């Protein structure tokens, strides 16, 4: 009970602290290039990491090593980041079992189709909050010492390690008023939600105030972020979730909440005014009843994040899988525009540092709060995976890679009072719930 903590930040605090990238970059450029690490031991180029050596669908396979190779800046636009905190997403569990392996391997190494180079040892973890320790010669927005956050693309080595490299475009300055642990709960779900809501659904800050949006699966990582973003943009937000998450999603700003475990969810939503946008975080048969809830012939859009694209490339191969996914999407889009007068789309995560810059402003203004359900130390990554595997997420599960200071906003705590008993059990008593 009452284990999800939200940080309540005052926008006034943020006002004097935000600075533009350009102003900061000019001042920092002179010191941009410097050696990765100052301590002699670090120059040995070994680091701690959790790796997998093969795909494993049985839930094992994670191996701790302190002999992983420290990544280096290999292109002029790359930055090397010391990871302070990471977080887990459902994708980490899927990728551990080989989800998306064929396409991601090709993306990592375009020539891999021609030979059989291994992608292992592979490091999972898609979110990072940390500190820049090295920059390529053409990096203009960041300098060593900068606190940054980012969503690590799934084709890159992940953040369950002491260091990670990313391109400058993928990175953003971290919000100033939250800790690394809190910041790490946001980038991947934020990048996904923004890609889905902006690129696929056509929403933006200035066009959302008169829009009715339905978010299914509102209690998870993407859902809890999307509710807050949409409310910051002025939309009317309806959420589906289970009964014990109602307090959480209402605390994040949801206008209407429908308990999908109580009665027919489609029937309950069907009694409401129709929607302009549906963001579907649940998938399955949701689309069969959800598209009928959209306003017909008025540009309304259904966007699902649960797509068969990578499953298709895994099972059918790259060419056939891509063609099959394309045909499926076209058929559904055509059928929905003809018979329902609505747009049907698939949403995907996309790396986008500038988008995270906008999210940072909302976090520092107190309009978006990190929703950290559980924290684990770096020694307990397998336990964190076990917690995630049990489902019923209420926000995010975060890994403290480097033990850190407490939040600067520690005294500004809003307890939403959600029940997360299942999650506490799942963490086997190791999570430090807030
Ligand atoms: N396409 C992409 O690039 C992309 C990117 C990110 C995420 N995704 C996918 O998007 C989905 C959501 O991601 P996430 O990170 O938010 O997952 P998550 O953190 O695991 O959250 C899922 C939430 O949905 C709730 N839920 C389950 N069944 C439900 C139902 N029938 N109706 C309403 N709520 C339900 C769960 O709680 P209860 O079970 O307790 O109800 C949980 O809170 C996942 O399938 C993920 O794989 C796709």
From TrEMBL:
One of its GO terms (molecular function) is oxidoreductase activity. The keyword Nucleus does not apply. Keywords: Membrane, Mitochondrion, Mitochondrion outer membrane, NADP, Neurogenesis, Nucleotide-binding, Oxidoreductase, Transit peptide, Ubiquinone biosynthesis. Residues 59-399 form the Enoyl reductase (ER) domain. It comes from the Eukaryota. Gene3D superfamilies: Medium-chain alcohol dehydrogenases, catalytic domain, NAD(P)-binding Rossmann-like Domain. One of its GO terms (cellular component) is mitochondrial outer membrane. GO terms for biological process: nervous system development; ubiquinone biosynthetic process. The keyword Cell division does not apply. It is found in: Mitochondrion matrix; Mitochondrion outer membrane. It catalyses: 3-demethylubiquinone-10 + NADH + 2 H(+) = 3-demethylubiquinol-10 + NAD(+); 3-demethylubiquinone-10 + NADPH + 2 H(+) = 3-demethylubiquinol-10 + NADP(+); a 3-demethylubiquinone + NADPH + 2 H(+) = a 3-demethylubiquinol + NADP(+); a 3-demethylubiquinone + NADH + 2 H(+) = a 3-demethylubiquinol + NAD(+). Pathway: Cofactor biosynthesis; ubiquinone biosynthesis. Belongs to the zinc-containing alcohol dehydrogenase family. Quinone oxidoreductase subfamily. This is NAD(P)H oxidoreductase RTN4IP1, mitochondrial.
